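Is cytidine-5'-monophosphate placement plausible here? Inputs below.
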Amino acid sequence: RKPQQIAIDGPAASGKTSVGKLLAKKLDYLFFDTGVMYRLATYVALQKLGSVEDEDQVTRITKEMDIALRVNPENDETEVLLCGEPVNESIRSSQVDKNVSIVASYPGVRQTLTEQQRKIGLLGNVVMVGRDIGTVVMPDAALKIYLLASPEKRAERRYQENLRKGIPSDFHEILMDIMKRDEIDSTRVLAPLKAAEDAILIDTDYINQEQVVERILSIIEQPE
Ligand code: C5P
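Reply from A.M.:
I modeled the complex. Tokens:
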């Protein structure tokens, strides 16, 4: 019997999204990237307030955010809608990168988004990716994966991805941002980035995303 809920956690740019999407496709599951929610809250807060320093205001904005999910019939991918409109690449800007971990450290923000994520988890047949999925959002998930990779490898992959997408970027800046985010994410008090005790660790330094997915599929197919 296939696990109904699959949690994938790991540090910034560890390949969670690519691996999660591919895995969900193979299993015909819903894919949900929780990082999108924290990025959206950050994006909206920056637009409305110009900065993310005011915890109360940022929390209020997060609570009032109108987000919905839908499956795009054209490519079968799960899309997040903000006020009915599909979210675009603006949530991946370096300005959002630089501020998102601060927003994600606010307890009120986490509480609001965690509740919404749990509801999605309860739908079942879901691959959910983030930082605290196996530890906090879906602690009962039948399969938990934690992806590891060195900061340099992760920065290199993100840099190549940006090149492909035509987004101007600087390797060193990406590396610094990734290390900074990892530090804030893993040292915050509430739901820090860490592997659940029952998570399976996969080091992706020397294997590509297809190989990671193959490995996860072989774990799923193992007789108990
Ligand atoms: O996964 P991604 O890099 O898009 O996540 C952006 C940020 O959102 C992370 O650096 C982290 O601060 C926050 N996040 C989180 N908990 C999650 C997912 C993301 O705190 N479950």
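Short version: Residues 12, 34-35, 38-39, 100-101, 104, 130-133, 181, 185 surround cytidine-5'-monophosphate (CB under 6 Å).
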